[in-house]
Amino acid sequence: MSHLHINRVEIAGFFVLYGQRVDCINNVWVVGTEDEVVVIDASHDAAPIIEAIAGRTVSAIAITHGHPDHLNVADALGDATGAPVLIHPDDRFFWDEFQPDRVPDGALRDGGTLSAGTHRLTVIHTPGHSPGSVCFRVDDIVFTGDTIFQGGPGATDRPRGDFPTIISSIRDRLLVLPSQTVVHPGHGPSTQIGVEEPLYRQFADLLPGSA
Ligand SMILES: [Fe+2]
Q1: Sorted alphabetically, which CDD domains does this protein's record hold (predicted)?
Q2: What spacing in Å lies between the alpha carbon of 2 and ligand 1's midpoint?
Q3: Is residue 14 within 8 Å of 23, Cβ to Cβ?
Q4: Which residue has the higher pLDDT, 174 or 209?
Q5: Are 94 and 101 a contacting pair, CB within 8 Å?
Q6: pLDDT at residue number 7
Q7: Which residues is 135 bridged to in the sheet?
Q8: What's the pLDDT tens digit per position in 64-121?
Q9: pLDDT higher than threshold 70 for residue 1
Q10: How far is the CA of 169 from the centre of ligand 1 (A)?
């Protein structure tokens, strides 16, 4: 099995969500081998992403969730690479608002896999930040979009975000991963499941029905 290559592309931009301008820097992840990659998210500017792809075949452009800063160049990147752009159906309502001129090429579903050369990324549905938020696991690495950051969960104050739901997703789907699992989020620095776990255990204790 050939070595897994991971390129992190940091891209600054902004978006307007329901009248509020948000400036942000996104991590776009290019993951795969010397021959084939999956691109995780399509943020702000296709050019540096295409540069990181460096001529390799793109098997999929996988969108972690439908907020505009994660898909606002999905159309340009899809056109430039010819790769299918995929999003979870539960965030299709965001896609239709922010990418109205193009339809997604397919759906991400829990337990599905994406191929990146000899490696496989597994889709983990982690609703809460948005209904269709997903993470992607490959080997001892998980790409978390806006579900987990270093130091806290993603915001849940946007339409159809829900705090108990994100905490349940993290507890039931991410904290069960080995503690040494590396977390590569959609914004900011990377971390590890075991480093973040104590914080989320505190949140989970607040959930209704927790002992
Ligand atoms: Fe988001």
Answers
A1: metallo-hydrolase-like_MBL-fold (cd06262)
A2: 32
A3: yes
A4: 174
A5: no
A6: 98
A7: 124
A8: 999 999 999 999 999 999 999 999 999 999 999 999 999 999 999 999 999 999 999 9
A9: no
A10: 15
Predicted confidence band of residue 165 (pLDDT cuts 50, 70, 90): very high
Rounded to whole angstroms, how far apart are CA atoms 72 and 142? 23
Distance 132 CA to ligand 1 centre (A): 11
> Which residues make Cβ contacts (< 8 Å) with residue 172, sequence separation at least 6?
none
What the chain holds in terms of domains, given with CATH numbers, is: 5-205 (3.60.15.10)
Distance 62 CA to ligand 1 centre (A): 14
Ligand 1 centroid – CA 3 distance (Å): 30
Would you say residue 211 has pLDDT above 60?
Answer: no
Mean pLDDT over 154-162 rounds to 92
Tell me how far the alpha carbon of residue 24 lies from the centroid of ligand 1, in angstroms.
10
CA distances (Å), 168 to each of 78, 90, 165, 209, in order?
Answer: 33, 17, 5, 11
The per-residue pLDDT of the chain, averaged, comes to 95
Name the burial class of residue 104, with classes exposed (0-12), middle (13-18) and buried (19+) by CB atoms within 10 angstroms of its CB. buried
CA of 154 to the centre of ligand 1 (A): 7
Q: How far is the CA of 146 from the centre of ligand 1 (A)?
A: 5
CA 189 to centroid of ligand 1, rounded, Å = 16
Q: Is residue 186 very low, low, confident or very high in pLDDT (cuts 50, 70, 90)?
A: very high
